[in-house]
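Re: [ENG-882] Designed sequences occasionally contain unexpected residues at chain ends

Forwarding the minimal case from QA. Structure tokens:
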């Protein structure tokens, strides 16, 4: 069974749209992080689909770079969330908007 590139790109667009809605609608910082990860994975999926369609490997190389950046972003972001949770006991983005101690 061969999956068409157009279907994969449409799936990627849907996943990216869900991620955008998650970032814009939700107030929990952890959920916002998960939505950002969903958007990054949607972009990775489109890179892989286009690289497969072209028969090249450059898209897969970019995916490894994006995965590395996503892992670093998750590690640093979760450390910041844990530190702010210890100080304020909340992960609500509206309440964390003020950086006063």
């Amino acid at each position: 069974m061969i999956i068409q590139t157009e279907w994969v790109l449409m799936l990627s667009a849907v996943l990216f749209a869900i991620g955008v809605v998650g970032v814009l609608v939700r107030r929990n910082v952890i959920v916002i992080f998960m939505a950002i990860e969903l958007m990054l994975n949607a972009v990775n999926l489109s890179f892989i689909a286009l690289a497969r369609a072209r028969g090249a490997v450059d898209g897969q190389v970019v995916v490894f770079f994006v995965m590395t950046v996503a892992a670093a972003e998750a590690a640093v972001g979760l450390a910041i969330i844990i530190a702010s949770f210890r100080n304020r006991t909340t992960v609500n983005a509206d309440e964390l908007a003020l950086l006063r101690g």
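QA comment: On inspection the terminal residues look reasonable. The radius of gyration is 17 Å. Proposing we downgrade this to a documentation issue.
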